[in-house]
Amino acid sequence: MLVTLAAFAFVLGVLIFVHEFGHFLAAKAVGIGVPRFSIGFGSPTPLRFRRGETEYVVAWFPLGGYVKMASREEQDAMSSLEGGSLGEEYPDFPPDKLFENKPLWARILVISAGVAMNVLFAWGTYAALAAIYGRTEDRITSIAHVDSAMLPAQAEALAALPRGARVVMVNGDSVHTWEQLIRAIGDPGSSRLRLDFAGGLDAAILPIPGTDSRARAQVAAALYPLWGTEVARVSAGGAAAAAGIQVGDRVLAIGGDTVTAFYDLKRVVVASAGDTVTLRVLRDGAVLDLPMVPEERSVREPYTGEVRTEGVVGIDPVQDLVQIRYGPVDAVLEGASVTWANVELIAFTLKGIVSREVSPREIGGPIMIGQMSGEIARFGFAALLEFMALLSVNLAVLNLLPIPVLDGGHLIFLLLEGARGKPLSLTARMRLTQAGLVVLVGIVIFVFTNDILRLITG
To answer: Does an H or E element contain 410, and which?
Structure first.
């Protein structure tokens, strides 16, 4: 729980700061006064201080933040959300430092800067991770087994694939690693899913649009790679280690069933939780029979919600791994590529929600983010940074939605001003802002409800 709370506070705090700091820097750059920079909404906590013209505060409601800009027109429009009116502080700002007195381009720059900062943060994070860690991928695209029970109805043709079917292209693009295969299956920009195979096998053409992220994910989850039977790693304290299995052993059979691929071993182990099974291995030319008892583990099916018990023994197979390294320029390009891919994924998901091709029940809120932050933090700081970069892209795209209160709504006001030659009336802007606030509160309630339902249903 402490890890989860700490990770959640770190992730949320950094992303809010990055977004609001973009607005702050742009406002300062064009000469707009900034009386308050706040992490959180509502009344300020005792964590506050003033430096120059700006008061820096942490407010009580932490799900967001704001940069209060000097403006005689709109100083009270958001006062309840922003901790009350600043009142007498506004006369301290001369007319040339008020937001509404700046040129249109300057105001557009300031409103856009938060989104731009989120994108730059994601880009920089992905580029840094690529430069420091590179990427490890498995050079295999051959399939050992297709779980027909996992497949959506549109993909039933895949159930007839023979063992060893090697995927060479997905939607016309070549794939050379398992990770490339999975990413290509999940591509949200494709209207259908086509898998081409080596050896003269007929292509599989599946009528699953990229916007159907659930069905695409089911297809990916149903495919098992054709790993060999040599043991690469034995988990300390696991059932395999207790049975005496060693790195380098080649599994020949389990429970009397011949093993020709790692999937054969996994299938029997999963079904044998708590039972004794005999593993036959080849070690240094000798055949050994080693009894072991797979440990029980509860697993919840991600698509049905069904909880089942399966066995685990703690061994991994030898894989044909390749380490992809990036120089500085390639790392920057990789960061841009991953960032743009995430923008496309989020945009297609939003489009799918609007067109009802994606269920809005899949949307997560702060509780889900907190849970995921804690889980991902356990995999290390690099994994947490990658998660933060993805959330930063989410924040950027969602802030561009044309809802008054969000940056996208403010940009619509400014673009209308440019088209009309004059701004909307203050009354109209305040009414639209209040309507936008109602919509935003409704969205917050909806995502919280989704989160709570996930907790209740497990």
So the answer is: helix 407-420
User: Among candidates 231, 224, 223, 265, which has minimal Cα distance to 248?
Assistant: 231
* DSSP category for residue 400: T
State the DSSP code for 189: T
Distance CA 107, CA 122 (A): 24
One domain for residues 120 and 12:
yes
**Three-state DSSP class for 55?**
strand
- How far apart (Å, rounded) are the C-alpha atoms in residues 23 and 395? 14
Other residues' Cβ atoms within 10 Å of the Cβ of residue 455: 11
Residue 379 lies in a domain: no
Query: Rounded to an integer, what is the distance from CA 84 to the centroid of its chain?
Result: 35
* pLDDT, position 86: 52
Q: Look-up: residue for tokens 């999940």? A: 186
Give per-residue pLDDT as tens, 364-420. Answer: 666 777 777 777 777 788 888 988 998 999 889 988 988 888 899 899 999 999 998
Number of structural domains, the chain? 3
pTM above 0.85, yes or no: no
β-pair partners for 136: 323
Give catalytic status of residue 20 as yes or no. Answer: yes
Q: Please state the φ and ψ torsions of residue 298, each to the nearest 5 degrees.
A: -85, 130
DSSP H helices, 138-198, are 178-185
Q: Of the candidates 443, 153, 178, which has an alpha carbon nearest to the alpha carbon of residue 321? A: 178
Backbone angles phi, psi at 164, to 5 degrees: 90, 0
* Residue numbers of the domain that contains 204: 137-225
Answer yes or no: do 247 and 169 share one domain. Answer: no
Q: pLDDT digits over 288-311, tens only?
A: 999 999 998 877 665 555 667 889
Is the separation of the CB atoms in 240 and 313 below 8 Å?
yes
Question: How far is it, in rounded angstroms, from Cα 201 to Cα 89?
Answer: 74
CATH of the domain at 279: 2.30.42.10
Which of 20, 55, 295, 386 is catalytic? The answer is 20
